[in-house]
TrEMBL record:
An individual GO BP term: copper ion import
Protein name: ferric-chelate reductase (NADPH)
EC annotation from Swiss-Prot or TrEMBL: 1.16.1.9
First-listed, main subcellular location of the protein, grouped into a coarse class: membrane
Record's catalysed reaction(s): 2 a Fe(II)-siderophore + NADP(+) + H(+) = 2 a Fe(III)-siderophore + NADPH
Region (Disordered) residue spans: 495-518
Annotated PANTHER family: FERRIC-CHELATE REDUCTASE, FERRIC/CUPRIC REDUCTASE TRANSMEMBRANE COMPONENT
Membrane disposition: Multi-pass membrane protein
Family: Belongs to the ferric reductase (FRE) family.
Top enzyme category: oxidoreductase
TM ranges: 32-50, 100-122, 134-155, 175-193, 222-243, 255-276, 282-302
Length: 586
């Protein structure tokens, strides 16, 4: 092995120092970057194989294989980990499901153990070489960096190969960022500790007797000032993204997040300074992220066409607004969402909304329906409500989301809280339309919708009734649960508080709803979600569940389904039970 000391010449070192350089040598450090990239790519490959298995199960042969009892038990065990929520300690501290926590814990443990298991941590003196612990962790951070960008992009290659949409990958984007921060600190502190050594003044360049790190900073070595700048911007990126700040000032957060990310990337590029092929990894990262950006905006321009789509605004009872948007070039699956830019009201803002209708591919007049609640604080919904009955120009970015196809399940259970019904109503539309074409195995569709006020029924009543009319008689059951003023899950129907607008909103909210369709059942009490799902599990055949609502609402559904998955994994009432969820918060 050829020795290439970072400081001085080989003749400046003792035999023991030359031998020291052979242990975890500086030039071999890229192996840590490759190891991290290889480990993450291995997990992504495994997820891609699971995605292909899901597709294979849709074939006749695959369905027979998947229906075997050992396969069903194994599937239930995996789904239990993927479904079971972790305990919630506060409204601002919410961890992902146990399966995701397990994956992240294994990866963090792997990285940190690898960092500290290799010795030495330091060289005997500064000029012998940089602290090996610092170099190891720095190269590991370089390996983590590409995936932070990949998991954070709306259109990304990870989604393309695994089937997991960008909102499901956000948790990995956030926790990989935290790991990068920890590795950055482990990269920084060894330099600080080793740099306390006073630099010799044999060459007469250190008359002030500065320490090694102080001298390096004094002469302006690029590694040091860019490292400090990186750490400052990284701290902001990680901790200004915490849930309370992000939710309270989302648009400001988004703008500063983008600016900080650009500054951080520039400092990171300068900090690497082409050492140990580091720039090769950054160029590859930029290329992959560039593909994501080009694809996203290219598809957005193509789908929106030459003219900007005009959304028809309709104010609904219960303080909600319905947007109907002509979308001849858009295609989407039930349960997907789009990011909407309201050109006239909030030009620089883009908000995600679930599409509440299915894409009827046989219709010449394809329209997208979006229902959003107005905000007592005067948000975008209130601004749109003031424009009724006019139209407003919108730009649509999407659709995104993996969708939820429940057509192969004998029983479809749709559970929603408040405006989360957008997610399940689109699935209901899709299932009922496909029942006309004979394209599904579903025999029972049960919709449970939890709202605070019965006036909210008007948000989706027309769509639900139209879906019921398409389906065979008795196939669809709709249960509306009106919880009243003491809503536990935060399913609030807000009203404006100023002037005549407040009076009009109150009238809309208190207006007596029309007589419901015979398929509707209305109860004035809070439902016990596990009991509702348990009654569905008593029906014969496989069960598909779709749920959307606030975090606590979705967690209750997850617990009930996870309990069933655990029971099946242990060999009790083994069959196929699958859960699809959409979260209010990412």
């Amino acid at each position: 092995m050829q020795l290439r000391p970072r400081h001085g010449h080989a003749s400046d070192y003792t035999p023991s120092e030359l031998a020291e350089m052979l242990v975890d040598p500086y030039d071999d450090s890229p192996k840590y970057t490759k190891g991290i990239i290889g480990a993450v790519c291995g997990v992504i490959l495994l997820a891609a194989l699971v995605n292909q298995w899901s597709r294979y199960k849709l074939t006749e042969t695959g369905a027979k294989v998947a229906s075997k009892r050992p396969i069903l038990r194994l599937t239930a065990a995996v789904r239990y980990l993927a479904t079971a929520p972790t305990p919630t300690f506060s409204r601002y501290l919410h961890f992902p499901t146990r399966g995701v926590v397990f994956l992240l814990a294994v990866f963090w443990t792997f990285v940190l153990v690898w960092s500290f298991a290799v010795t030495p941590y330091y060289r005997s003196r500064w000029n012998v070489g940089s602290p090996p612990l610092a170099i190891r962790t720095g190269m590991m951070a370089l390996g983590v960096f590409p995936f932070i960008l990949a998991f954070g992009a709306k259109w990304n290659l990870v989604t393309f190969v695994t089937g997991y949409s960008h909102e499901k990958l956000q948790v990995f984007h956030q926790w990989f960022s935290q790991l990068f921060f920890v590795l950055s600190l482990l990269h920084t502190f060894p330099f600080v500790m080793a740099g306390r050594e006073v630099r010799p003044n044999k060459d007469g360049l250190n008359p002030m007797g500065l320490t090694q790190i102080g001298y390096s900073w004094h002469i302006g070595k690029v590694y040091y000032w860019t490292g400090v700048a990186m750490l400052i911007t990284l701290t902001w990126l990680c901790y200004a993204s915490l849930t309370p700040l992000r939710q309270r000032w989302y648009e400001m957060f988004k703008l500063l997040h983008i600016i900080s990310a650009i500054l951080f990337s520039a400092f990171f590029y300068l900090h690497c300074n082409a050492l140990l092929t580091s720039w090769d990894y950054l160029y590859a990262t930029a290329g992959l992220y560039g593909i994501s950006v080009v694809m996203r905006f290219g598809l957005m321009l193509f789908r929106n066409g030459r003219g900007v789509p005009q959304a028809q605004i309709e104010v609904l009872p219960g303080d909600a607004v319905r947007l109907t948007i002509p979308t001849p070039k858009h295609q989407w699956k039930a349960g997907q969402h789009v990011f909407v830019n309201f050109c006239k009201t909030r030009l620089l803002e883009s908000h995600p909304y679930t599409i509440s209708n299915d894409a009827n591919i046989y219709s010449h007049k394809r329209e997208m329906v979006i229902v959003l609640k107005t905000d007592v604080k005067g948000g975008i919904g209130a601004r749109l409500a003031s424009l009724e009955p006019a139209t407003t120009p919108v730009l649509l970015d999407g659709p995104y989301g993996s969708g939820a196809d429940l057509s192969r399940h004998h029983v479809a259970v749709l559970v929603a809280g408040g405006s989360g019904a957008s997610f399940v109503v689109s699935i209901l539309n899709d299932l009922c339309r496909r029942s006309v074409w004979g394209e599904l195995q579903t025999k029972h569709i049960i919709l449970h919708w939890v709202v605070r006020n019965e006036a909210c029924r008007a948000w989706f009543e027309d769509q639900i009734n139209a879906a019921i009319a398409m389906a065979p008689k008795g196939m669809v059951q709709v249960h509306l649960h009106v919880t009243g003023v003491d809503a536990q899950y935060g399913l609030q129907v807000e009203s404006k508080t100023d002037g005549s607008d407040a009076g009009e909103a109150e009238k809309r909210c208190r207006a007596k709803p029309s007589r419901p369709h015979p398929a509707w059942t209305i109860s004035n009490q809070r439902p016990y979600l596990p009991s509702l799902l348990e009654s569905a599990f008593e029906l014969p055949g496989c069960v598909g569940i779709a749920s959307c609502g606030p975090t606590s609402f979705t967690d209750d559904v997850r617990r009930a389904v996870a309990s069933k998955q655990k029971s099946m994994a242990l060999g009790h009432d083994v069959r196929d039970v699958e859960l699809h969820t959409e979260e209010f918060d990412w």
